[in-house]
Write a structure and sequence with these properties.
It is a single chain. The protein is mainly beta. The chain has 2 helices and 26 strands. The protein has a 15-stranded parallel sheet that branches. It has an 11-stranded parallel sheet with strand order 3-6-9-11-13-15-17-19-21-23-25. The protein is globular, with a radius of gyration of 21 Å.
Length: about 375
């Protein structure tokens, strides 16, 4: 479908009209080209959310899309995402060709603190890509620049792939996460993620806060499971975490494979290359032992304050080939653990481990290499 065959008064309407027309004609594909025929420029200004139907592919061809100043909306969203009774959608693809930039533009004043106050809408409007209750999806080959909140948000999504994503965010607004999988996400691959995010680069978080209450899908499992994260080369300009796993309130998080985190931090150090759990953020109760389990993480090179930070519960999990430069290789705070196995931990000018206010049993640290070790804190029995 030629996107310029039905030019509207602004670019969002032009794109939406092309998508709707293609879908009606059963063509199911639209290409956004580099040049905007309405303006003659290599820029598309987004003033309204562009909604995507099922069984549809949106191709971004060397184009630059920028959020308009002062608007409160997503750039792309599945058609049913905001519906109260959110019927499942299937097979939605966003794919880039060449140099594709999705640009957050200037901050609009909407943050987690201002959300739903003084006339502001919900913060969810500031996530650039929002998918809810989608089975079979792909987002690939794009560069996200200065997102106004989380770059991509997925709720109750399954059987998907997020790949070849480059971020450039300088912490100009709070909570500039990269990719967020929320409650109900499973069977998803996230791979080849690069660049800089202001907050967590990849976050798998399931808690029963406001977003959960507003966007819960009836008769769907809330747990996060069967997620593969691989080849992450990133830093966090706001000093948070590269990969974060968090669950509370009876929601489980399990069967997670993380293979390859390269921490490219320079002046600002991340809190952790990988953080599992937290004593905060629960609404009903904190996660209990065995609600966070079967985590495998390997091939982590960290320049963060801690390579692996345990902050809640963790059980039946395996960590291998961990290299830490400065700081701690392993640190546990206010945590309950069981059957954790660490194999191949190298510390360069740092500290091996610290287990503070930690209870449990079955923690094994094997094959340690210590280079200019500063201190080893004894494991609390």
């Amino acid at each position: 479908m030629d996107i310029n065959c039905n030019i509207q008064e602004h670019d969002s309407l032009t794109i939406q009209a092309a998508i709707d027309r293609a879908y009606e004609r059963n063509e199911n594909k639209v290409v956004i080209p580099r040049i905007n025929a309405r303006t003659g420029e290599a820029l598309w200004e987004i003033k309204e959310t562009i909604f995507l139907p099922s069984d549809f592919t949106l191709i971004l061809d060397n184009c630059h899309l920028r959020m308009a100043d002062g608007v409160y909306c997503n750039m792309f969203c599945n058609r049913n995402a905001y519906a109260k009774e959110c019927e499942e959608q299937k097979n939605i693809i966003i794919t880039g060709i060449g140099n594709v930039v999705l640009d957050g533009g200037l901050p609009n004043g909407l943050t987690e603190k201002t959300s739903l106050t003084n006339g502001f809408p919900s913060i969810i409007n500031n996530t650039m890509i929002f998918f809810r209750n989608v089975s079979g999806f792909s987002v690939e080959n794009i560069h996200i620049k200065e997102q106004r909140w989380w770059g991509m948000t997925f709720m109750y999504c399954e059987h998907g792939r997020i790949s070849n994503i480059n971020f450039s965010a300088t912490n100009i607004v709070p909570n500039q996460d990269g990719i967020d999988l929320r409650a109900g996400c499973h069977d998803i691959v996230i791979e080849n993620i690069f660049g800089k995010t202001g907050d967590d680069t990849i976050a798998l978080t399931a808690v029963t806060g406001t977003l959960f209450q507003d966007f819960k899908v009836k008769n769907k499992d809330n747990n996060i499971y069967n997620v593969i994260i691989r080849n992450v080369n990133a830093c966090v300009t706001g000093g948070h975490h590269i990969v974060r796993l968090l669950n509370h309130d009876g929601i489980q998080l399990y069967n997670i494979l993380i293979d390859g985190i390269m921490d490219c931090s320079e002046d600002v150090k991340a809190k952790a290359a990988l953080k599992i759990g937290d004593s905060r953020y629960s609404k009903i109760r904190r996660a209990t032992l065995h609600e966070t389990h079967n985590i495998t993480a390997r091939n982590i090179i960290s320049r963060a304050k801690t390579a692996i930070l345990l902050g809640g519960t963790a059980a039946d999990s395996y960590f291998s080939n961990i290299q830490q430069y400065g700081g701690y290789a392993i640190k546990s705070e206010c945590c309950e653990v069981e059957n954790l196995y660490f194999d191949g931990v190298t510390v360069n000018e740092g500290e091996l481990y610290s287990f503070e206010k930690t209870t449990g049993d079955g923690v094994v640290i094997n094959n340690m290499t210590l280079t200019f070790l500063k201190n080893v804190t004894k494991l609390n029995k």
